[in-house]
Amino acid sequence: MSLLLDPFEYAFFGRALLAAVLVGAVTGALGPFVVVRRMAYIGQGLSQSVLGGVGVALVYGAGLYSGAVAATAVATVAIYLTRRRGVPVDTAIGIVASTMFALGVAVISANRDRSLNITNLLFGNILGVDRNDLILVGIVVAIVAAMLFTLYKPLLAATHNPVVAAAHGVRVGMIEVMFNALLALAVITALQVLGVLLVAATLLLPAATASLAFGSFGRLMLVSIGLGVTTAVVGLYVSYYHDIASGPAIVLTGAAAFAALALGLPNRFRHSRAAV
Amino acid sequence: MTTAIELSGVGVRFGPTRPLRSIDLTIDAGELVGIVGPSGAGKTTLLRLLLGEIAASEGTVEFTGVTPRRRRRAVGYVPQLEASERTFPLTVQGAVELGAAATSAPVPWFSRAERAAARHALDRLGIGDLHARGLHELSGGQFQRVLFARALVSEPQLLLLDEPTSGIDLRTRGEMLGLVDELRRDGLTIVMTTHDLNWVASHLPRIVCLNQTVRADGAPIDVLRPDVLAATFGAQMEVVMHQGRPVVVDGDALVGGAP
Protein backbone atom coordinates (compact mmCIF):
# COMPACT_ATOMS: atom_id res chain seq x y z
CA MET A 1 0.00 0.00 0.00
CA SER A 2 2.81 2.38 0.80
CA LEU A 3 4.02 1.81 -2.75
CA LEU A 4 0.80 3.45 -3.94
CA LEU A 5 0.60 6.20 -1.31
CA ASP A 6 4.24 7.27 -0.92
CA PRO A 7 4.30 9.41 -4.10
CA PHE A 8 1.48 11.55 -2.67
CA GLU A 9 3.95 13.01 -0.18
CA TYR A 10 4.82 15.29 -3.06
CA ALA A 11 2.07 17.75 -4.01
CA PHE A 12 2.93 17.53 -7.71
CA PHE A 13 2.06 13.81 -7.84
CA GLY A 14 -1.61 14.36 -7.02
CA ARG A 15 -1.90 16.99 -9.75
CA ALA A 16 0.01 14.82 -12.20
CA LEU A 17 -2.20 11.80 -11.48
CA LEU A 18 -5.39 13.79 -11.96
CA ALA A 19 -4.10 15.26 -15.24
CA ALA A 20 -3.02 11.81 -16.47
CA VAL A 21 -6.42 10.28 -15.62
CA LEU A 22 -8.33 13.06 -17.41
CA VAL A 23 -6.09 12.93 -20.48
CA GLY A 24 -6.32 9.10 -20.50
CA ALA A 25 -10.12 9.32 -20.43
CA VAL A 26 -10.27 11.84 -23.31
CA THR A 27 -7.83 10.02 -25.59
CA GLY A 28 -9.50 6.70 -24.68
CA ALA A 29 -12.93 8.10 -25.65
CA LEU A 30 -11.84 9.60 -29.00
CA GLY A 31 -9.45 6.75 -29.84
CA PRO A 32 -12.06 4.24 -31.12
CA PHE A 33 -13.28 6.77 -33.70
CA VAL A 34 -9.67 7.46 -34.77
CA VAL A 35 -8.97 3.73 -35.10
CA VAL A 36 -12.09 2.73 -37.07
CA ARG A 37 -11.76 5.80 -39.32
CA ARG A 38 -8.11 4.82 -39.96
CA MET A 39 -7.04 8.35 -39.00
CA ALA A 40 -3.90 7.43 -37.06
CA TYR A 41 -1.78 9.63 -39.32
CA ILE A 42 -3.92 12.68 -38.53
CA GLY A 43 -3.27 12.39 -34.79
CA GLN A 44 0.46 12.03 -35.46
CA GLY A 45 0.45 14.93 -37.92
CA LEU A 46 -1.49 17.25 -35.60
CA SER A 47 0.77 16.59 -32.62
CA GLN A 48 3.99 17.04 -34.61
CA SER A 49 2.68 20.26 -36.17
CA VAL A 50 2.01 21.66 -32.71
CA LEU A 51 5.74 21.82 -31.90
CA GLY A 52 6.26 24.62 -34.43
CA GLY A 53 3.69 26.86 -32.78
CA VAL A 54 4.73 25.92 -29.25
CA GLY A 55 8.40 26.59 -30.03
CA VAL A 56 7.69 30.02 -31.52
CA ALA A 57 5.26 30.93 -28.72
CA LEU A 58 7.64 29.97 -25.92
CA VAL A 59 10.65 31.69 -27.45
CA TYR A 60 8.66 34.91 -27.91
CA GLY A 61 7.09 34.78 -24.46
CA ALA A 62 3.57 33.58 -25.31
CA GLY A 63 1.97 30.63 -23.54
CA LEU A 64 2.32 26.97 -24.52
CA TYR A 65 -1.40 26.53 -25.18
CA SER A 66 -1.81 29.69 -27.28
CA GLY A 67 1.09 28.46 -29.45
CA ALA A 68 -0.49 25.02 -29.74
CA VAL A 69 -3.89 26.43 -30.78
CA ALA A 70 -2.26 28.73 -33.36
CA ALA A 71 -0.17 25.84 -34.71
CA THR A 72 -3.24 23.63 -35.09
CA ALA A 73 -5.03 26.37 -37.04
CA VAL A 74 -2.00 27.02 -39.28
CA ALA A 75 -1.50 23.27 -39.89
CA THR A 76 -5.18 22.79 -40.83
CA VAL A 77 -5.05 25.65 -43.37
CA ALA A 78 -1.65 24.54 -44.75
CA ILE A 79 -2.87 20.95 -45.23
CA TYR A 80 -6.03 22.23 -46.95
CA LEU A 81 -4.05 24.48 -49.30
CA THR A 82 -1.52 21.72 -50.08
CA ARG A 83 -4.35 19.30 -50.91
CA ARG A 84 -5.86 21.89 -53.28
CA ARG A 85 -2.68 21.61 -55.34
CA GLY A 86 -3.59 17.96 -55.97
CA VAL A 87 -1.27 16.46 -53.34
CA PRO A 88 -2.73 13.30 -51.64
CA VAL A 89 -3.94 13.90 -48.09
CA ASP A 90 -1.38 11.66 -46.31
CA THR A 91 1.46 13.33 -48.24
CA ALA A 92 0.09 16.80 -47.44
CA ILE A 93 -0.09 15.94 -43.72
CA GLY A 94 3.44 14.52 -43.83
CA ILE A 95 4.85 17.65 -45.51
CA VAL A 96 3.10 20.13 -43.18
CA ALA A 97 3.74 18.15 -39.98
CA SER A 98 7.44 17.59 -40.71
CA THR A 99 7.96 21.23 -41.69
CA MET A 100 6.29 22.59 -38.55
CA PHE A 101 8.10 20.07 -36.35
CA ALA A 102 11.43 21.12 -37.89
CA LEU A 103 10.50 24.79 -37.38
CA GLY A 104 9.84 24.15 -33.69
CA VAL A 105 13.15 22.33 -33.18
CA ALA A 106 15.04 25.03 -35.15
CA VAL A 107 13.53 27.93 -33.18
CA ILE A 108 14.11 26.29 -29.80
CA SER A 109 17.64 25.10 -30.58
CA ALA A 110 18.63 28.58 -31.86
CA ASN A 111 17.35 30.22 -28.69
CA ARG A 112 19.91 31.01 -25.98
CA ASP A 113 17.38 30.65 -23.15
CA ARG A 114 18.35 27.34 -21.54
CA SER A 115 15.12 27.26 -19.53
CA LEU A 116 13.35 25.95 -22.66
CA ASN A 117 13.71 22.19 -22.46
CA ILE A 118 12.95 20.52 -25.76
CA THR A 119 12.91 17.06 -24.16
CA ASN A 120 9.95 18.11 -22.02
CA LEU A 121 8.06 19.25 -25.12
CA LEU A 122 8.85 16.08 -27.03
CA PHE A 123 8.21 13.52 -24.31
CA GLY A 124 6.04 15.28 -21.71
CA ASN A 125 6.70 16.87 -18.35
CA ILE A 126 3.89 15.88 -16.09
CA LEU A 127 5.77 17.20 -13.05
CA GLY A 128 5.27 20.66 -14.52
CA VAL A 129 1.45 20.42 -14.44
CA ASP A 130 0.16 23.35 -12.40
CA ARG A 131 -3.28 24.38 -11.24
CA ASN A 132 -4.04 26.29 -14.46
CA ASP A 133 -3.11 23.25 -16.58
CA LEU A 134 -5.48 21.14 -14.51
CA ILE A 135 -8.31 23.62 -14.96
CA LEU A 136 -7.73 23.65 -18.74
CA VAL A 137 -7.66 19.85 -18.93
CA GLY A 138 -10.84 19.73 -16.84
CA ILE A 139 -12.63 22.15 -19.18
CA VAL A 140 -11.58 20.16 -22.26
CA VAL A 141 -12.73 16.90 -20.66
CA ALA A 142 -16.11 18.49 -19.92
CA ILE A 143 -16.43 19.75 -23.52
CA VAL A 144 -15.45 16.39 -25.05
CA ALA A 145 -17.77 14.49 -22.70
CA ALA A 146 -20.72 16.82 -23.46
CA MET A 147 -20.16 16.66 -27.22
CA LEU A 148 -19.76 12.88 -27.27
CA PHE A 149 -22.86 12.46 -25.08
CA THR A 150 -25.10 14.54 -27.32
CA LEU A 151 -23.64 13.66 -30.74
CA TYR A 152 -22.60 10.04 -30.20
CA LYS A 153 -25.24 8.54 -32.52
CA PRO A 154 -24.79 10.86 -35.53
CA LEU A 155 -21.00 10.67 -35.09
CA LEU A 156 -21.15 6.87 -35.08
CA ALA A 157 -23.46 6.86 -38.13
CA ALA A 158 -21.12 9.24 -40.00
CA THR A 159 -18.13 7.09 -39.02
CA HIS A 160 -19.78 3.85 -40.15
CA ASN A 161 -20.86 5.17 -43.56
CA PRO A 162 -20.89 8.93 -44.20
CA VAL A 163 -22.80 8.61 -47.49
CA VAL A 164 -25.65 6.66 -45.90
CA ALA A 165 -25.66 8.88 -42.82
CA ALA A 166 -26.00 11.99 -45.01
CA ALA A 167 -28.75 10.31 -47.03
CA HIS A 168 -30.68 9.62 -43.82
CA GLY A 169 -30.43 13.24 -42.66
CA VAL A 170 -27.25 13.32 -40.51
CA ARG A 171 -25.36 16.63 -40.98
CA VAL A 172 -22.12 14.90 -41.84
CA GLY A 173 -20.14 18.07 -42.66
CA MET A 174 -20.90 19.59 -39.26
CA ILE A 175 -20.09 16.29 -37.52
CA GLU A 176 -16.70 16.07 -39.28
CA VAL A 177 -15.74 19.64 -38.27
CA MET A 178 -16.81 18.94 -34.69
CA PHE A 179 -14.87 15.68 -34.47
CA ASN A 180 -11.68 17.22 -35.85
CA ALA A 181 -12.00 20.13 -33.41
CA LEU A 182 -12.37 17.67 -30.49
CA LEU A 183 -9.33 15.77 -31.72
CA ALA A 184 -7.26 18.96 -31.88
CA LEU A 185 -8.41 19.93 -28.37
CA ALA A 186 -7.45 16.49 -27.03
CA VAL A 187 -4.00 16.66 -28.65
CA ILE A 188 -3.33 20.15 -27.25
CA THR A 189 -4.36 19.29 -23.70
CA ALA A 190 -2.38 16.04 -23.72
CA LEU A 191 0.84 17.87 -24.67
CA GLN A 192 2.01 18.65 -21.14
CA VAL A 193 1.45 15.07 -19.97
CA LEU A 194 2.58 13.07 -22.98
CA GLY A 195 4.72 15.28 -25.18
CA VAL A 196 4.45 16.02 -28.88
CA LEU A 197 5.82 12.68 -30.07
CA LEU A 198 3.64 10.40 -27.97
CA VAL A 199 0.17 11.94 -27.99
CA ALA A 200 -0.89 9.98 -31.07
CA ALA A 201 0.05 6.67 -29.44
CA THR A 202 -2.42 7.24 -26.62
CA LEU A 203 -5.19 7.86 -29.13
CA LEU A 204 -4.45 4.47 -30.69
CA LEU A 205 -3.28 1.99 -28.04
CA PRO A 206 -6.32 1.78 -25.70
CA ALA A 207 -8.76 1.67 -28.64
CA ALA A 208 -6.70 -0.87 -30.59
CA THR A 209 -6.38 -3.06 -27.48
CA ALA A 210 -10.13 -2.93 -26.78
CA SER A 211 -10.99 -3.67 -30.41
CA LEU A 212 -9.16 -7.00 -30.18
CA ALA A 213 -11.94 -8.32 -27.97
CA PHE A 214 -15.11 -6.28 -28.53
CA GLY A 215 -17.38 -6.30 -31.58
CA SER A 216 -19.82 -3.68 -30.29
CA PHE A 217 -18.72 -0.06 -30.62
CA GLY A 218 -20.34 1.07 -27.37
CA ARG A 219 -18.51 -1.55 -25.28
CA LEU A 220 -15.30 -0.95 -27.21
CA MET A 221 -15.47 2.74 -26.31
CA LEU A 222 -16.13 2.14 -22.60
CA VAL A 223 -13.28 -0.38 -22.38
CA SER A 224 -11.01 2.01 -24.30
CA ILE A 225 -11.73 4.78 -21.77
CA GLY A 226 -11.04 2.34 -18.92
CA LEU A 227 -7.76 1.26 -20.52
CA GLY A 228 -6.77 4.89 -21.21
CA VAL A 229 -7.25 5.76 -17.54
CA THR A 230 -5.62 2.56 -16.22
CA THR A 231 -2.53 2.80 -18.41
CA ALA A 232 -2.15 6.48 -17.49
CA VAL A 233 -2.21 5.67 -13.76
CA VAL A 234 0.09 2.63 -14.02
CA GLY A 235 2.41 4.52 -16.37
CA LEU A 236 2.65 7.43 -13.98
CA TYR A 237 3.71 5.16 -11.10
CA VAL A 238 6.26 3.51 -13.42
CA SER A 239 7.50 6.99 -14.32
CA TYR A 240 7.78 7.96 -10.65
CA TYR A 241 9.59 4.84 -9.41
CA HIS A 242 11.93 4.40 -12.39
CA ASP A 243 12.60 8.09 -12.91
CA ILE A 244 11.65 8.12 -16.61
CA ALA A 245 9.61 10.69 -18.54
CA SER A 246 5.84 10.36 -18.04
CA GLY A 247 4.95 10.16 -21.75
CA PRO A 248 7.13 7.14 -22.59
CA ALA A 249 6.11 5.38 -19.36
CA ILE A 250 2.38 5.72 -20.20
CA VAL A 251 2.85 4.68 -23.83
CA LEU A 252 4.99 1.66 -22.90
CA THR A 253 2.35 0.56 -20.38
CA GLY A 254 -0.31 0.84 -23.08
CA ALA A 255 1.85 -1.08 -25.56
CA ALA A 256 2.41 -3.84 -22.97
CA ALA A 257 -1.37 -4.15 -22.46
CA PHE A 258 -1.89 -4.37 -26.24
CA ALA A 259 0.85 -7.02 -26.63
CA ALA A 260 -0.49 -9.07 -23.71
CA LEU A 261 -4.01 -9.14 -25.18
CA ALA A 262 -2.87 -9.64 -28.77
CA LEU A 263 -0.70 -12.62 -27.82
CA GLY A 264 -2.66 -14.02 -24.89
CA LEU A 265 -6.33 -13.69 -25.79
CA PRO A 266 -7.85 -17.08 -26.72
CA ASN A 267 -9.35 -17.13 -30.21
CA ARG A 268 -12.89 -17.69 -28.94
CA PHE A 269 -12.83 -14.27 -27.25
CA ARG A 270 -11.22 -12.51 -30.16
CA HIS A 271 -13.08 -10.01 -32.37
CA SER A 272 -10.99 -11.19 -35.28
CA ARG A 273 -12.07 -8.73 -37.94
CA ALA A 274 -11.94 -5.57 -35.90
CA ALA A 275 -11.06 -2.59 -38.03
CA VAL A 276 -7.55 -2.06 -36.69
CA MET B 1 -52.19 6.26 -59.27
CA THR B 2 -50.51 8.98 -57.15
CA THR B 3 -47.34 10.60 -58.45
CA ALA B 4 -44.38 10.02 -56.11
CA ILE B 5 -41.53 11.64 -58.07
CA GLU B 6 -41.69 14.29 -60.77
CA LEU B 7 -38.67 15.78 -62.54
CA SER B 8 -39.39 18.56 -65.08
CA GLY B 9 -36.65 19.96 -67.31
CA VAL B 10 -34.00 19.07 -64.75
CA GLY B 11 -30.34 19.88 -65.37
CA VAL B 12 -27.34 19.73 -63.04
CA ARG B 13 -24.06 21.60 -63.47
CA PHE B 14 -20.87 21.15 -61.46
CA GLY B 15 -18.70 23.99 -62.76
CA PRO B 16 -17.90 23.22 -66.39
CA THR B 17 -19.34 19.68 -66.30
CA ARG B 18 -22.99 18.94 -66.88
CA PRO B 19 -23.85 15.42 -65.70
CA LEU B 20 -27.61 15.81 -66.29
CA ARG B 21 -29.68 17.90 -68.72
CA SER B 22 -33.34 18.18 -69.76
CA ILE B 23 -34.60 15.32 -67.59
CA ASP B 24 -38.35 14.76 -67.61
CA LEU B 25 -39.37 11.78 -65.51
CA THR B 26 -42.47 10.79 -63.56
CA ILE B 27 -42.60 7.83 -61.19
CA ASP B 28 -45.85 6.76 -59.54
CA ALA B 29 -46.17 5.65 -55.93
CA GLY B 30 -45.55 1.92 -55.59
CA GLU B 31 -43.55 1.65 -58.83
CA LEU B 32 -40.29 -0.28 -59.18
CA VAL B 33 -37.94 1.41 -61.66
CA GLY B 34 -34.42 0.55 -62.79
CA ILE B 35 -32.06 3.31 -63.98
CA VAL B 36 -29.42 1.93 -66.35
CA GLY B 37 -26.50 3.61 -68.05
CA PRO B 38 -22.71 3.49 -68.33
CA SER B 39 -20.29 4.88 -65.74
CA GLY B 40 -20.46 8.67 -65.75
CA ALA B 41 -24.00 8.68 -67.21
CA GLY B 42 -25.37 10.65 -64.24
CA LYS B 43 -27.02 7.77 -62.31
CA THR B 44 -25.44 8.72 -58.99
CA THR B 45 -26.21 12.41 -59.60
CA LEU B 46 -29.85 11.48 -60.17
CA LEU B 47 -29.91 9.54 -56.87
CA ARG B 48 -28.33 12.50 -55.06
CA LEU B 49 -31.06 14.75 -56.47
CA LEU B 50 -33.75 12.38 -55.20
CA LEU B 51 -32.01 12.20 -51.80
CA GLY B 52 -32.03 16.00 -51.57
CA GLU B 53 -28.23 16.09 -51.24
CA ILE B 54 -27.90 18.40 -54.23
CA ALA B 55 -30.31 20.82 -55.88
CA ALA B 56 -31.10 20.99 -59.59
CA SER B 57 -29.38 23.81 -61.49
CA GLU B 58 -32.38 23.94 -63.84
CA GLY B 59 -35.94 22.64 -63.65
CA THR B 60 -37.79 21.21 -60.67
CA VAL B 61 -37.56 17.99 -58.64
CA GLU B 62 -40.54 17.02 -56.50
CA PHE B 63 -41.13 14.11 -54.17
CA THR B 64 -44.81 13.87 -53.21
CA GLY B 65 -45.26 17.51 -54.24
CA VAL B 66 -42.35 19.07 -52.32
CA THR B 67 -38.57 19.21 -52.76
CA PRO B 68 -36.78 16.01 -51.67
CA ARG B 69 -34.77 18.01 -49.12
CA ARG B 70 -37.98 18.73 -47.20
CA ARG B 71 -38.89 15.05 -47.13
CA ARG B 72 -35.42 13.65 -46.55
CA ARG B 73 -36.55 11.42 -43.72
CA ALA B 74 -39.19 9.77 -45.93
CA VAL B 75 -36.40 8.36 -48.12
CA GLY B 76 -34.43 5.19 -47.37
CA TYR B 77 -31.07 4.61 -49.04
CA VAL B 78 -29.26 1.32 -49.58
CA PRO B 79 -25.64 1.75 -50.74
CA GLN B 80 -23.43 -0.65 -52.67
CA LEU B 81 -21.98 -3.44 -50.57
CA GLU B 82 -18.68 -2.29 -49.11
CA ALA B 83 -16.27 -4.62 -47.34
CA SER B 84 -15.19 -1.90 -44.90
CA GLU B 85 -18.71 -1.60 -43.50
CA ARG B 86 -18.72 -5.29 -42.57
CA THR B 87 -15.53 -5.10 -40.51
CA PHE B 88 -16.94 -2.26 -38.41
CA PRO B 89 -17.36 -3.21 -34.74
CA LEU B 90 -21.16 -3.14 -34.58
CA THR B 91 -23.88 -5.67 -33.89
CA VAL B 92 -26.68 -6.15 -36.43
CA GLN B 93 -29.17 -4.40 -34.12
CA GLY B 94 -26.72 -1.51 -33.56
CA ALA B 95 -26.16 -1.03 -37.30
CA VAL B 96 -29.90 -0.94 -38.06
CA GLU B 97 -30.61 1.53 -35.22
CA LEU B 98 -28.16 3.96 -36.86
CA GLY B 99 -30.79 4.47 -39.59
CA ALA B 100 -32.66 6.58 -37.00
CA ALA B 101 -29.59 8.52 -35.78
CA ALA B 102 -30.63 11.83 -37.36
CA THR B 103 -34.03 11.98 -35.68
CA SER B 104 -33.12 10.40 -32.34
CA ALA B 105 -32.83 12.35 -29.06
CA PRO B 106 -29.33 13.78 -28.25
CA VAL B 107 -28.34 11.02 -25.84
CA PRO B 108 -25.95 8.11 -26.53
CA TRP B 109 -28.66 5.44 -26.48
CA PHE B 110 -31.71 4.70 -28.62
CA SER B 111 -35.19 4.81 -27.09
CA ARG B 112 -37.25 1.69 -26.48
CA ALA B 113 -39.47 2.62 -29.48
CA GLU B 114 -36.41 3.06 -31.75
CA ARG B 115 -34.96 -0.28 -30.64
CA ALA B 116 -38.34 -1.92 -31.28
CA ALA B 117 -38.53 -0.30 -34.76
CA ALA B 118 -35.07 -1.67 -35.60
CA ARG B 119 -36.08 -5.12 -34.38
CA HIS B 120 -39.31 -4.90 -36.41
CA ALA B 121 -37.30 -4.01 -39.56
CA LEU B 122 -35.03 -7.00 -38.94
CA ASP B 123 -38.02 -9.31 -38.41
CA ARG B 124 -39.64 -7.96 -41.59
CA LEU B 125 -36.52 -8.94 -43.52
CA GLY B 126 -36.37 -12.36 -41.86
CA ILE B 127 -33.16 -11.84 -39.88
CA GLY B 128 -34.55 -10.94 -36.45
CA ASP B 129 -32.73 -13.93 -34.93
CA LEU B 130 -29.36 -12.43 -36.00
CA HIS B 131 -29.82 -9.16 -34.05
CA ALA B 132 -27.04 -9.84 -31.53
CA ARG B 133 -24.47 -11.01 -34.11
CA GLY B 134 -21.49 -8.90 -35.17
CA LEU B 135 -21.61 -7.56 -38.75
CA HIS B 136 -18.42 -9.49 -39.56
CA GLU B 137 -20.23 -12.78 -38.85
CA LEU B 138 -22.81 -12.33 -41.63
CA SER B 139 -22.93 -13.77 -45.14
CA GLY B 140 -23.21 -11.38 -48.11
CA GLY B 141 -26.98 -11.93 -48.38
CA GLN B 142 -27.53 -11.44 -44.66
CA PHE B 143 -25.46 -8.25 -44.68
CA GLN B 144 -27.46 -6.85 -47.57
CA ARG B 145 -30.64 -7.48 -45.59
CA VAL B 146 -29.11 -5.47 -42.74
CA LEU B 147 -28.54 -2.56 -45.16
CA PHE B 148 -32.18 -2.79 -46.24
CA ALA B 149 -33.33 -2.93 -42.60
CA ARG B 150 -31.29 0.21 -41.79
CA ALA B 151 -32.98 2.01 -44.71
CA LEU B 152 -36.44 0.84 -43.58
CA VAL B 153 -36.16 1.63 -39.87
CA SER B 154 -37.59 5.13 -40.30
CA GLU B 155 -40.54 3.74 -42.34
CA PRO B 156 -39.70 5.55 -45.63
CA GLN B 157 -42.04 5.94 -48.61
CA LEU B 158 -39.25 5.90 -51.19
CA LEU B 159 -36.37 3.44 -51.30
CA LEU B 160 -33.27 4.24 -53.39
CA LEU B 161 -30.90 1.36 -54.16
CA ASP B 162 -27.42 2.12 -55.52
CA GLU B 163 -26.13 -0.75 -57.67
CA PRO B 164 -27.74 -3.45 -55.51
CA THR B 165 -26.60 -6.26 -57.83
CA SER B 166 -22.96 -5.18 -57.81
CA GLY B 167 -20.47 -7.52 -56.15
CA ILE B 168 -22.96 -10.16 -54.98
CA ASP B 169 -23.34 -13.78 -56.02
CA LEU B 170 -26.28 -15.21 -57.98
CA ARG B 171 -28.02 -16.66 -54.94
CA THR B 172 -27.83 -13.35 -53.08
CA ARG B 173 -29.18 -11.56 -56.15
CA GLY B 174 -32.16 -13.90 -56.12
CA GLU B 175 -32.76 -13.19 -52.44
CA MET B 176 -32.44 -9.46 -53.05
CA LEU B 177 -34.96 -9.58 -55.87
CA GLY B 178 -37.49 -11.41 -53.68
CA LEU B 179 -36.96 -8.78 -51.02
CA VAL B 180 -37.45 -5.86 -53.42
CA ASP B 181 -40.61 -7.43 -54.81
CA GLU B 182 -41.99 -7.93 -51.31
CA LEU B 183 -41.28 -4.29 -50.37
CA ARG B 184 -42.93 -3.05 -53.56
CA ARG B 185 -46.04 -5.11 -52.76
CA ASP B 186 -46.07 -3.35 -49.37
CA GLY B 187 -46.51 -0.04 -51.26
CA LEU B 188 -42.95 1.32 -51.30
CA THR B 189 -41.76 3.25 -54.36
CA ILE B 190 -38.36 1.80 -55.34
CA VAL B 191 -35.75 3.27 -57.67
CA MET B 192 -32.51 1.40 -58.31
CA THR B 193 -29.43 2.07 -60.41
CA THR B 194 -27.55 -0.77 -62.06
CA HIS B 195 -25.15 -1.70 -64.84
CA ASP B 196 -26.73 -5.13 -65.11
CA LEU B 197 -28.94 -4.93 -68.21
CA ASN B 198 -30.04 -8.55 -68.36
CA TRP B 199 -30.91 -8.63 -64.70
CA VAL B 200 -33.20 -5.61 -65.02
CA ALA B 201 -34.59 -6.94 -68.31
CA SER B 202 -35.76 -10.13 -66.66
CA HIS B 203 -36.85 -8.73 -63.30
CA LEU B 204 -38.01 -5.12 -63.49
CA PRO B 205 -41.25 -3.86 -65.08
CA ARG B 206 -39.80 -0.45 -66.08
CA ILE B 207 -36.37 0.71 -67.21
CA VAL B 208 -35.03 4.23 -67.69
CA CYS B 209 -31.94 4.41 -69.95
CA LEU B 210 -29.86 7.37 -68.84
CA ASN B 211 -26.86 9.08 -70.34
CA GLN B 212 -26.90 12.75 -69.35
CA THR B 213 -30.56 12.76 -70.35
CA VAL B 214 -33.29 10.13 -70.59
CA ARG B 215 -32.61 8.10 -73.76
CA ALA B 216 -35.59 5.76 -73.32
CA ASP B 217 -38.20 4.93 -70.70
CA GLY B 218 -40.60 1.99 -70.61
CA ALA B 219 -40.98 -1.78 -70.34
CA PRO B 220 -37.78 -3.80 -71.05
CA ILE B 221 -39.20 -5.24 -74.25
CA ASP B 222 -39.81 -1.70 -75.60
CA VAL B 223 -36.60 -0.11 -74.34
CA LEU B 224 -33.88 -2.69 -74.85
CA ARG B 225 -33.28 -2.16 -78.56
CA PRO B 226 -29.90 -1.90 -80.33
CA ASP B 227 -30.44 1.77 -81.31
CA VAL B 228 -31.37 2.80 -77.73
CA LEU B 229 -28.45 0.83 -76.25
CA ALA B 230 -26.03 2.41 -78.73
CA ALA B 231 -27.30 5.89 -77.78
CA THR B 232 -27.09 5.09 -74.06
CA PHE B 233 -23.85 3.09 -73.84
CA GLY B 234 -22.04 4.30 -76.97
CA ALA B 235 -21.40 0.69 -78.00
CA GLN B 236 -23.01 -1.74 -80.42
CA MET B 237 -25.05 -4.40 -78.65
CA GLU B 238 -27.31 -7.09 -80.03
CA VAL B 239 -30.63 -8.01 -78.49
CA VAL B 240 -32.01 -11.53 -78.83
CA MET B 241 -35.29 -12.84 -77.48
CA HIS B 242 -35.25 -15.71 -74.99
CA GLN B 243 -38.51 -17.09 -73.55
CA GLY B 244 -40.27 -13.85 -74.53
CA ARG B 245 -37.71 -11.59 -72.83
CA PRO B 246 -34.98 -9.46 -74.40
CA VAL B 247 -31.40 -10.57 -73.70
CA VAL B 248 -28.58 -8.12 -74.41
CA VAL B 249 -25.44 -9.56 -75.98
CA ASP B 250 -22.15 -7.70 -76.26
CA GLY B 251 -21.53 -7.01 -79.97
CA ASP B 252 -17.94 -8.31 -79.71
CA ALA B 253 -19.20 -11.65 -78.43
CA LEU B 254 -21.35 -12.10 -81.56
CA VAL B 255 -18.46 -11.62 -83.92
CA GLY B 256 -16.23 -14.12 -82.18
CA GLY B 257 -14.83 -11.99 -79.35
CA ALA B 258 -14.57 -13.03 -75.74
CA PRO B 259 -17.54 -15.20 -74.73
What does the model show?
The complex is a heterodimer of chains A (276) and B (259). By secondary structure, chain A is an all-alpha fold. Chain A has a single domain (2-269), classed as ABC transporter involved in vitamin B12 uptake, BtuC (Orthogonal Bundle). Chain A has 12 helices and no strands. Chain A has helices spanning 2-5, 11-36, 40-59, 64-84, 89-110, 118-123, 131-160, 162-167, 172-194, 199-211, 217-242, 246-264. The longest helix of chain A has 30 residues, at 131-160. Chain A is globular. The two termini of chain A are 38 Å apart. With 259 residues, chain B is an alpha/beta fold. Chain B has one domain (3-254): P-loop containing nucleotide triphosphate hydrolases (Rossmann fold), CATH 3.40.50. Helices cover 32% and strands 29% of the residues of chain B. Chain B has helices spanning 43-51, 83-86, 92-97, 112-124, 140-152, 170-185, 197-203, 220-223, 226-233, 251-254; strands spanning 3-14, 17-28, 32-36, 58-63, 75-78, 158-162, 189-194, 206-211, 213-218, 237-242, 245-250. In chain B, strands 5-6-7-3-8-9 form a 6-stranded mixed beta sheet, with helices on both faces. In chain B, strand 10 and strand 11 form a beta hairpin. In chain B, helix 4 crosses helix 5 (140-152) and helix 5 (140-152) packs parallel to helix 6. The N and C termini of chain B lie far apart (44 Å). The model of chain B is unreliable at 253-259 (pLDDT under 50). The interface between A and B is medium-sized, with 34 and 35 residues.
